[in-house]
Amino acid sequence: MKKSLLAAAIMSMVCSSTVFAHGSCDTELHGYMINIKDEMRAMSSDVKAGDSQSAVGHVEALITYFEKSRSEVPHKFNHDDLKGEELKIQTAEYQKVVDSTITILKDLKGALQSGDSSKVRELFGAIGEQRNLGHSSFKDC
Ligand code: HEM
């Protein structure tokens, strides 16, 4: 009995709705996003510590990861089986959000270099909004 209970518990974890509904998310994009999260954390602790020069290095890395992410296809597009015109429209939408994120990061680099801390704060908020927009529109895993 114990064995079958354990098996059932394991199955219910493995087949949780997220795993079942969306599949695993072992994409190149997922890997870039993990790097983006790490770079964001490092950048924000540099800003708190007043090390703008090091923060600029992390912003440059963020720009590179978003440039790489731009040519990736979100898992959701495959999961939803998007094709033809619909795939084209959604890809253009996705790239638009990535492009505006890159523009904000370039502005952030400028604000860090000129020591404009209120602008830095404002742009942090704008990056958070891009993340929410990107995840609510294109992330399903
Ligand atoms: C600085 C801002 C961002 C951070 C820190 C971030 C972080 C992450 C992290 C940690 C994941 C992995 C899954 C998770 O743990 O939830 C993820 C996944 C994802 N993110 Fe972001 N993200 C950011 C911005 C964006 C933007 C702007 C977009 C879209 C334009 C985006 C699209 C996605 C997608 C589509 C996935 C799922 C991966 C896939 O479909 O293959 N993210 N993100």
Report on the structure:
This protein has helices at 2-14, 17-22, 28-49, 52-70, 75-79, 84-113, 117-138. The relative contact order is 0.12. The chain has one domain (26-138). Helix 6 (84-113) packs antiparallel against helix 7. It contains seven helices and no strands. Mean pLDDT is 88; it is low at 1-21. The chain is mostly helical. The protein binds protoporphyrin IX containing FE. Protoporphyrin IX containing FE (HEM) binds at residues 25, 27, 29-30, 33-34, 36-37, 40, 74-76, 94, 97-98, 101, 127, 130-131, 134-135, 138-139, 141. Pfam families: Cytochrom_B562. It comes from Marinomonas foliarum. This is Cytochrome b562. Keywords: Signal. InterPro entries: Cyt_b562.
Number of folding domains? 1
* Shape annotation: elongated
Strand proportion, as a percent range, falls in: under 5%
- Specify the helix fraction band: over 70%
Which structural class best describes the helix and strand composition?
mainly alpha
Say how many strands there are: 0
Bound molecules: protoporphyrin IX containing FE
Q: List segments where confidence is low: pLDDT < 50 over at least 5 consecutive residues.
A: 1-21
Spatial separation of the terminal alpha carbons: 34 Å
Helix tally? 7
Mean pLDDT over the full residue set: 88
Largest sheet: none
Q: State Rg.
A: 19 Å
Instruction: List the secondary-structure elements in sequence, H or E.
Output: HHHHHHH
Short summary of the structure?
The chain is mostly helical.
